[in-house]
């Protein structure tokens, strides 16, 4: 039986590798038909149930975006915002359901080899009341969301600023 165990281990590792490969393909396929290249970057149209932040992260990886700014609008099933409490180094979250995102603004940068999305937004409800803040999560509702991504030529990295204990965007040649 000892001779079977190494074979079983190799087979299990191969299965994990194939699963990881297909997972990456599935993530890339999630973007299929959801964006087009434009002269300045990309136009992304997301639909019901799409996670806005996850799709922006996937776009950054698939298209090898060095860094970018983005703006967007659309109907959201759920928008989760946070207000940063510097004394606790944590966000105070609040969730809004079935709202229009009147403005979504943010940047795509990198941190520790992964895309880092920083976004703020403003949502309105059926009574035209508005709320907003730092975006913690955003899920598209019925209808769609349109996001324009404007590319920057250099790769920007985020880092934790030790003076404030929060992520900031680093610019090349500036500390």
From TrEMBL:
Annotated ranges, domain PPC: 36-172
Cleaved signal peptide residues: 1-28
InterPro entries per UniProt: PPC_dom
Keywords: DNA-binding, Signal
GO molecular function terms attached to this record: DNA binding
Superkingdom of origin: Bacteria
Protein name, entry field: PPC domain-containing DNA-binding protein
């Amino acid at each position: 039986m000892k001779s079977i165990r190494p074979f079983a281990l190799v087979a299990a590792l191969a299965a994990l590798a194939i699963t990881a490969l297909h997972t990456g393909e599935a993530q890339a396929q999630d973007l299929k038909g959801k964006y087009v290249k434009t002269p300045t970057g990309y136009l992304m149209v997301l639909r019901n149930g799409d996670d806005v932040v996850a799709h922006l992260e996937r776009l950054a990886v698939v298209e090898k975006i060095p860094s970018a700014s983005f703006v967007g609008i659309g109907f959201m099933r759920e928008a989760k915002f946070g207000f940063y409490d510097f004394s606790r180094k944590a966000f105070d979250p609040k969730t809004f359901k079935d709202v229009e995102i009147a403005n979504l603004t943010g940047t795509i940068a990198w941190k520790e080899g992964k895309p880092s999305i920083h976004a703020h937004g403003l949502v309105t409800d059926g009574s035209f009341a508005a709320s907003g803040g730092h975006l913690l999560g955003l899920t598209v509702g019925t209808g769609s969301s349109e996001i324009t991504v404007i590319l920057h030529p250099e790769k920007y990295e985020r880092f934790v600023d030790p003076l404030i204990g929060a992520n900031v965007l680093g610019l090349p040649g500036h500390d």
